[in-house]
Amino acid sequence: QVQLVESGGGLVQDGGSLRLSCAASGRIFNTYTVGWFRQATGEEREFVAAISWDSGRANTADSVKGRFTISRDNAKNAVYLTMNNLKPEDTAVYYCAASGAQYHSGTYALQGSYNYWGQGTQVTVSS
Questions:
Q1: 89-117 pLDDT, tens digit each
Q2: Which DSSP string do the residues of the chain spell out, in sequence order?
């Protein structure tokens, strides 16, 4: 069983930065693939970024490429999403998710690939 808790969200101006954290319980978390997803009001949840258990592989969505970076610290059971040059369209609730499956190019962006989800943290970017 893995429990995930996101933090670091808030209100920021257009062009600003935030770093989201995902803290996990469970000793086997450091073997899990972890992803970040987001859901804007009235929209479907969408993939943002994912990282393999050893940080050897990572991917971000085209919409955030070059602005967002995913990283992890297995010693701290934590995964981070560093968000720079934020835009109003980045406003959403951000969720981290964990999967016991190996990182795979065909599945890392799929919500159904993830077994565990956090409650989410709100990010609001004002124009």
A1: 999 999 999 998 889 888 999 999 999 99
A2: --EEEEE--EEEETT--EEEEEEEESGGGGGSEEEEEEE-TTS--EEEEEE-TTSS-EEE-TTTTTTEEEEEEGGGTEEEEEE-S--GGG-EEEEEEEESSPP-TTTTT-GGG-SEE---EEEEEE-
